[in-house]
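U., I forgot to send this yesterday:
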Amino acid sequence: MAELLVRVDTADFDRLARRFALVGTNIRPALMRAVNHTGDKARTQLTRALTKQTGLKSRVVRAALRTFPAGLSAIVYRIVARGGFVSLKEFGARQTGKGVSASPWGKRRVFAHTFIVASLGGHVFERTGKGRLPIRKLWGPAIPREMVRDEVKAAFEGEVGASLPTRLSYEIARILASTAA
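Result:
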């Protein structure tokens, strides 16, 4: 009597199954680490893009942003911008013969028929009537509004799209490497 046997060694499959089971229990911390790492990189890109788009100094932009890193209960990295419109005086305002020259939104221009009042904090004003008064203060961009527009939004989404899959793969590989026996 002849007999043919097919035998499969399942030791490798069992070991692989155990490793994937460990990834399953450790996936939330890995996701949290990947999201926080990517969020920090995206915040850097967001700050750079906001500095360029608004014309503000980087330290002013950083001070207006607050981050809330992801935790195990909620894997969400939040960047919150606070503040309102920024006074035109913060954009290098200087008095010229034709008005005030300032560079909001990163472009220097002359605001015709405007003036700086030193006794009112050096802010930029314009007249709203025919007489000396009333006057109106002039404003530049608002960081919260600019954060969700144009190049800033594209920079944030681009960084997240490029970095998150790579970082998540790295974190999963770390877990698998630690479980190799």
